[in-house]
Amino acid sequence: MQVNRGDSFMLPLQVFVDGQPQDCTSWQVYSSYGNDIERLGDFEVIWDERAAGKFFLTSSTDDWPLGKLSLDITYVTDAAQEITTQRVQFEVLRRITPVPLPSPTP
Predict the structure, then answer these.
(1) Per-residue CA distances from 41 to 31, 60, 65, 77 (Å)
(2) pLDDT 10s digits, 88-101
(3) Nearest-CA neighbor of 13 among 63, 40, 49?
(4) Beta carbons of 76 and 82 less than 8 angstroms apart
């Protein structure tokens, strides 16, 4: 996955257990991003539909360093069981197109 620094980051996700959507009504979800040395920041978790385990991870990317980063997610179930996903690597790239575009010169 590649992300342009400065873009809005919003990653839709859904929790499945045994191939079925997981009811996450009483669950807590935490997610952070960083490199191999340190945690650089945390994602905001926005629930779309808790009963179907649907949520978004969001963050501003304005201050993200260029290069490879990783994220993981830790779920805390209603039984207080902590489950952490494998790390997902992604690359932060410099945006090519500026916003707004510069005015053409006459």
Answers:
(1) 9, 10, 11, 23
(2) 999 999 999 888 88
(3) 49
(4) yes
